[in-house]
Design goal:
- By secondary structure, this protein is of the alpha/beta class.
- Helices cover 48% and strands 14% of the residues.
- The protein has ten helices and eight strands.
- It has an eight-stranded mixed β-sheet with strand order 1-4-3-2-5-6-7-8, sandwiched between helices.
- α5 links the parallel β6 and β7.
- α1 crosses α8 and α3 packs parallel to α4.
- The longest helix has 29 residues.
Length: 274
């Protein structure tokens, strides 16, 4: 595993936000929100694009430390945690890094599913456990998890992805309750389909959901930032359609929810007339 970092010294008195999966998509948009509001940043991702992202974010006038590390591994999480623990105490941890796997469970590679769980679930828990004591000690820390409206129903053809996002939503709500008297707030960001590289990487381009209209990641990030600052427990971000879908899922039997999701995510469904 390759771990590299670009170090800068955060400015005294400025708050610090840690954002994972920040080389592109929602993670980069979240990092921009924090930068626009005067936060210095520690940003992390597996790919080398995190250094380009850090340079662009730094052009806004904030200090940015980039960590290139694979957060699906113990070594990668420890590298990031070590960098965070060695610097000024952050005010915010945004656990955003994640991947998807599209297609029937038995027709897709087992290692892809295990890597998804290692990043979306195990890596998220590991990093949270390492950084959370700092946030609690502040008395006003903030923790953000990027979940998804996929968390609200079973996800055929995205089975482990939807399950991982349901885990993150439940995990966020549980931690929020446990730490309710500490001053820490925990927020779950729940976007719908968003215009990122997710669908290409997950092999979902030929599906109804892959070909549907998608939200702007900047809008999703803005919704998440505002909810985090307001101390909300969760926010369904983006379009009204996302909020309607999340509301429907609350009262829909799981079997019906699975069928609805299956129609949207089934391979080849993007070419169906309906």
């Amino acid at each position: 595993m390759t771990v590299s970092s670009t170090d800068h010294t955060p400015s005294p008195g400025r708050p610090v936000a840690v954002v994972t999966g920040a080389s592109s998509g929602i993670g980069l948009a979240l990092a921009r929100e924090f930068a626009d509001h005067g936060y210095d940043l520690v940003v992390a991702a597996e790919d080398a694009g995190i250094h380009d992202a850090a340079e662009a974010l730094g052009a806004t006038g904030v200090d940015v430390t980039a960590v290139q590390a694979d957060l699906a591994t113990v070594e990668g999480v420890e590298a990031l945690a070590g960098k965070v623990l060695a610097g000024p105490a952050p005010e915010v941890l945004a656990v955003n890094a994640g991947v998807g796997v599209g297609g029937p469970f038995l027709d897709t590679d087992l290692q892809d599913h295990l890597r998804l769980i290692a990043l979306n679930v195990t890596g998220a828990v590991h990093l949270t456990h390492r950084v959370l004591p700092i946030l609690v000690a502040r008395g006003d820390g903030k923790l953000l998890f990027t979940s998804s409206i996929a968390a609200t129903m079973p996800g055929p053809y995205e089975s482990t992805y939807a399950a991982s996002k349901a885990f993150l939503f439940s995990f966020a709500e549980a931690i929020r309750h446990e730490l309710r008297d500490t001053g820490l707030t925990v927020t779950a960001l729940m976007p719908g389909p968003t215009d990122t590289e997710f669908f290409e990487r997950a092999g979902l381009e030929d599906t109804k959901v892959g070909q549907s209209d998608k939200d702007d990641p900047a809008e999703v990030a803005r919704d998440g930032f505002e909810a985090l600052m307001a101390g909300q427990d969760h926010v369904v971000a983006g379009s009204r359609k996302n909020r309607a879908q999340a509301g429907t899922a609350k009262v829909m039997p799981a079997r019906a929810g699975a069928a609805m999701h299956g129609r949207m995510a089934e391979p080849g469904s993007g070419s169906d007339p309906d």
